[in-house]
Amino acid sequence: MAEGYGRDTPPIYSGTNEEPRSAGQPLSDFLLQLEDYTPTVPDAISAHYLHTAGFNTTDPRIVSTVRREEQIKILRRKERIAATR
Q: Which intervals of the chain are annotated as region Disordered (predicted)?
């Protein structure tokens, strides 16, 4: 077995004067920042299409993540259309 296998993830230091953070902390911080965001595509629509595609989840964070990706695709498509005109 490889040496160090199964060890906890080492802490991440974001600065010299800050407390050490776990590897999952940046993701948690990012998700907290996105809670105030008002989406173009509502979570209910994203959840419906996820369910229709066979992806059943009760975790609202997953639905919100998929919704954000949909939003990015919509914005990029709008930018491409605007660039061609």
A: 1-25
- Which three-class secondary structure state does DSSP give residue 21? strand
- Per-residue model confidence as pLDDT tens digits over 24-65: 678 777 777 777 767 778 888 888 999 999 998 888 888 888
The residue ranges of every structural domain in the chain are 41-84
Q: List the alpha helices (DSSP H) in the chain.
A: 25-33, 43-52, 60-84
Cα–Cα distance for residue pair 5/22, rounded to 1 Å: 18
For residue 16, the one-letter residue type is: T
- Name the DSSP letter for residue 22: -
Residue 72 tokens read as 């990015």
pTM: 0.50
Q: Which two tokens stand for residue 12?
A: 């991440």
Q: Rounded to an integer, what distance in angstroms lies between the CA atom of residue 33 and that of residue 16?
A: 23
Instruction: Please choose, from the candidates 79, 75, 73, the residue with its C-alpha nearest in 3D space to the C-alpha of residue 49.
Output: 73
